[in-house]
Amino acid sequence: MFTEAFMLRALIAAIVLAPLCSFLGVFVTARRMAFFSDTISHGALAGVALGFWWGMANPTLPMILFSVLIAGGILWLKENTELLTDTIMALVLSGSVAFGIVVLSLLRGYRGEIQSYLFGDILAIGNEDVALACVLSLTIGAWLFYQLSPLTLLTTEEEIAHVCGLPVRRLNYVFVLVLTLTVAMTIRLLGIILVTSLLVIPAAAGRNLSRNLRQQLLASGVIGLAGGIGGTLASAWWDIPTGPSIVLSCLILFGASLAGRKLWR
Q: How far apart are CA 38 and CA 146, in angstroms?
């Protein structure tokens, strides 16, 4: 099993994407942006539908572009209207999903492909997806560590970040772009429905085992990596869906972090 090309591709994707999501999840949960990532992931359905509508065998590019468009729309509405953030995201989520369903209803013969994007099918990803995931993880990971101190200050005390002269608006926009790209790429790992769980669960487990943000980043990355690899292997061994398998593996580790909370803290 471990010599099969599809299994090696799946493991590489899990190794590079799961820790990245976990690192980002620390900032996402601290900034209460879980609903934002959920909106982006569900809105990506419209990008997938458009890709199939245009006859593309791999709709990853339109999925990413549409996700970025959705994120930009949320930010524009937040800055140019008086609507509350959760209201804006609910509007965008419902509208993009409705549009995607309408497009999908006009298509024939893509049911299996659509299910792989809804529920994840990491065992079916190609070499180009793995290469894109590696480039994305290396680029975003380097940016996160380079901007770790400014992001930490921005996450904990945004007003102090303003006073210190940090480019708060630019950092927020770049962080949203980074989060959007990561969510869009991880859809092949977990699927549209479950992708937010890889941002939230390892970060929550890491919080149980840490005293500060840097410790949480390290713990979350390790937990995300273990959950990603363990879930992928369990999926191959027992022939179960990969996305739910990874989520359940992360939940098991979350339960273990609750048990070890008093010991480590």
A: 26
Question: What angle (nearest 5°) sits at the alpha carbon of residue 78, between those of residues 72 and 83?
Answer: 135
Number of domains present in the structure of the chain: 1
- CATH number of the domain that 109 lies in? 1.10.3470.10
Nearest to 204 by CA among 17, 28, 14: 28
> Does the pLDDT at position 140 exceed 80?
yes
Residue 223 pLDDT class (50, 70, 90 cuts): very high
Q: What is the mean pLDDT of residues 219-237?
A: 88
Q: Would 265 be classed as within a structural domain?
A: no
CB 197 within 8 A of CB 183: no
Is residue 201 assigned to a domain?
A: yes
Q: Please state the rounded mean pLDDT for residues 25-48.
A: 86
Which residue reads 């993880």 in tokens?
137
Q: Which residues contact 262 (CB under 8 A, 6 or more apart)?
A: none
Residue 138 resides in a domain: yes
What domain range is 157 assigned to?
5-259
pTM: 0.84
Compute the radius of gyration of the chain from its Cα atoms. 18
